[in-house]
Amino acid sequence: MVEVVVLGLLAVAAASLDAVLAGGPGPVREAARLLVAERRATPSADLLLTRAGAISLPVAAALAALVVPFGGHAALDTRVGVVWFNAMEVVAWASVWLAGWGVNSAYALVGGYRMVAQGLAYELPHMFALITAALAAHSLDLRAIGAAQGGLWFGVWMPVAFAVYLVSALAMAFWGPFGAPLGADIAGGAAAELSGPDRLVFLAGRYGLLTVASAVAVPLFLGGGAGPLLPAWLWSAVKTGAVLALLVWTRRRLPVLRMDRFMQVAWTVLIPAVLLQMLVVAIVVVD
């Protein structure tokens, strides 16, 4: 469970970096404020669905973290870590939809449906990027994929799959240019009516998803814990921190994409590009 603790600390660091870039209060102060804030209620809201959506988001992130290897070890010993991670992210975008639906608010409902549309757009490119790395390593085990890279990271000789994975990681956490489900144009979208502890749990899950997606990029494309001088688990943490910092930075530097444009790009650019990358990898592996 050490891996989950490290990822939790990195998530707090990501929230701190985001607060610095935004010039707002730090995560500890904001968490304290939300803990004592009164819950806001909307007429005819379904509290069960709302709370289920908010709570299942960090739960999905925590469950996904179980298969993240640090130094060749993971909290959950499974040979299908790629499948497990992909399943948990599907739970995540279902959670956002539940939170948006349950509060019985028009803006929140629009945000929830935006997340469903975004999930349908990014899921196929994301899945193909995962499969490309698994194909090169002949394994669905994240530990085996990291170990298979030797002296050449997969991110170097399959850059398209790596780039598509990073884009889909942002979409998975509805972050930066893919933050439309929580867009300001719909008063905060799926989280518009969430307040107090409910909002705190929901936002914590968002940072958790971003952190886990960054951590999974390390065994998939950045050689896992391989590196000179430092122990393997520390290299995993350092690489995760670097990817996470890059993803956090995009929120304040890139505009939010319109949903229809992202869907068009996903289906006409990302999917063909990553399929071509997979074909190249398959040819190299067969040879």
TrEMBL record:
UniProt main location, coarse: membrane
Bilayer topology term: Multi-pass membrane protein
Keywords linked to the UniProt accession: Membrane, NAD, Transmembrane, Transmembrane helix
Cell compartment(s), UniProt: Cell membrane; Membrane
Classification via Pfam families: NADHdh
Membrane-spanning segments: 47-68, 120-140, 152-172, 207-226, 232-250, 262-286
PANTHER family: NADH DEHYDROGENASE SUBUNIT 1, NADH-UBIQUINONE OXIDOREDUCTASE CHAIN 1
Family named by the database record: Belongs to the complex I subunit 1 family.
Protein name: NADH-quinone oxidoreductase subunit H
Source organism per UniProt: Actinomadura napierensis
